[in-house]
């Protein structure tokens, strides 16, 4: 819930609201005094331990009826104000909606069911005695829905063979329950501190020939975030890339030789095996421009899906023109709040392809360049990879590789 359906990644403000509204100033003071211990346990020991401290400090001795009253009358305003617009777009479009959260169910269920349309809420259950919360969790530490506990709770509610269509998560401890879903949609890919936003409708894997994803090129990480958005690894063909980048890449990369016939044969072979990603600009571009698209890809298949890539790099730019390009991914991740936006556009109509539409490769390439530029409000240019490197670095931008 926190960091996925909500923008904020911390549940502490909501615990503080319950503590103050239902327990008064002294209860809020107790929670504030316990918060450093909760933070230390959460980050250095385990999420469960930190959450248990927050639950005990907030709820111990409090009347359950008072907690329910605050959850109904106070919290909905603050939860709904913090909704993440993109997460809400996906969540609201689903049929049956199930929310798994480490937060106490009694605290979040009124908002999720009454205001957000959730059909089922699975959260941490707090223990009570004679109408008052004990501050402990039912089931002990395992009762805090974190990691495998979320997957176990989901299987218990929907059955052992459950396979939800879509899963949204924002941290590594969400991976066990997201592994039960069909496509893994990492709306907030925070394992490396990057927020990924996915727009459009990506096509499913093809049973016949592969789909060619034609991407604008912002950094060397474009194909990796494309694969993350698709929920499956998609190999990429690359022009000039360092050995370091090839070694650390989590997806398969295939180097092109710049020999037109050899490269065409290689791309056809890869498409026969499955989906493929290509960045026809041939190099990255930091500015809001698109370099000229190479026409080779358009002549090899009619199964083309344009993909607009946008990233946010506020301090360090992972798009070197001079120096060691192998460090570009590290510079990108050094930013305080890096972000990627992957937008899947409509599949290229048959009448606009080289095969069925009898268009030239240049016509198709220029059309896709214009469509992507219009999507992200960039400007199309006729500059090539060589033009960029000759202007910025005084060379052709080719990385030499020892044989």
TrEMBL record:
Single annotated GO MF: phosphatase activity
Protein name as annotated: Phospholipid/glycerol acyltransferase domain-containing protein
Organism listed in the record: Linum tenue
Residue intervals passing through the bilayer: 12-45
Keyword Transmembrane helix: yes
Keyword annotations: Acyltransferase, Membrane, Transferase, Transmembrane, Transmembrane helix
Subcellular location: Membrane
Main subcellular location: membrane
């Amino acid at each position: 819930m926190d960091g996925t359906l909500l923008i904020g990644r911390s549940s502490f403000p909501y615990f503080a609201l319950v503590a103050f509204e239902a327990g008064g100033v002294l209860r809020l003071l107790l929670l504030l005094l316990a918060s450093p211990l909760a933070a230390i346990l959460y980050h250095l020991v385990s999420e469960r331990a930190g959450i248990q401290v927050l639950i005990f400090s907030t709820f111990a001795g409090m009347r359950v009826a008072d907690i329910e009253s605050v959850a109904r009358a106070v919290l909905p305003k603050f939860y709904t104000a913090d909704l993440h617009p993109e997460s809400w777009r996906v969540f609201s479009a689903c049929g049956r909606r199930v929310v798994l959260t480490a937060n106490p169910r009694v605290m979040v269920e009124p908002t999720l069911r009454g205001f957000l349309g959730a059909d089922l809420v699975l959260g941490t259950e707090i223990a009570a005695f004679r109408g008052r919360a004990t501050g402990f969790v039912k089931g002990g530490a395992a009762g805090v829905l974190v990691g495998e506990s979320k997957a176990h709770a989901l299987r218990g509610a929907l059955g052992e063979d459950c396979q939800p269509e879509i899963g949204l998560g924002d941290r590594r401890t969400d991976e066990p329950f997201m592994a039960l879903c069909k496509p893994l949609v990492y709306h907030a890919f925070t394992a490396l501190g990057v927020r990924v936003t996915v727009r459009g409708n990506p096509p499913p894997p093809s049973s016949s020939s592969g789909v060619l994803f034609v991407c604008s090129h912002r950094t060397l990480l474009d194909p990796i975030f494309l694969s993350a958005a698709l929920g499956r690894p998609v190999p990429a063909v690359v022009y000039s890339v360092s050995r370091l980048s090839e070694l650390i890449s989590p997806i398969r990369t295939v180097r092109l030789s710049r020999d037109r016939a050899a490269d065409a044969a290689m791309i056809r072979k890869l498409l026969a095996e499955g989906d493929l990603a290509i960045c026809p600009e041939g190099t990255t571009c930091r500015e809001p421009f698109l370099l000229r698209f190479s026409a080779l890809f358009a002549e090899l298949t009619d199964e083309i899906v344009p993909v607009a890539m946008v990233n946010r790099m506020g301090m360090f730019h992972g798009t070197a023109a001079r120096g060691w390009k192998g460090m570009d991914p590290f510079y990108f991740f050094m930013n305080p709040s890096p972000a990627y936006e992957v937008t899947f556009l409509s599949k290229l109509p048959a009448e606009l392809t080289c095969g069925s539409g009898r268009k030239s490769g240049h016509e198709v390439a220029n059309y896709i360049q214009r469509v992507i530029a219009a999507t992200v409000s960039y400007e199309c240019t006729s500059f090539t990879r060589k033009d960029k490197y000759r202007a910025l670095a005084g060379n052709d931008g080719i990385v030499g590789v020892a044989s």
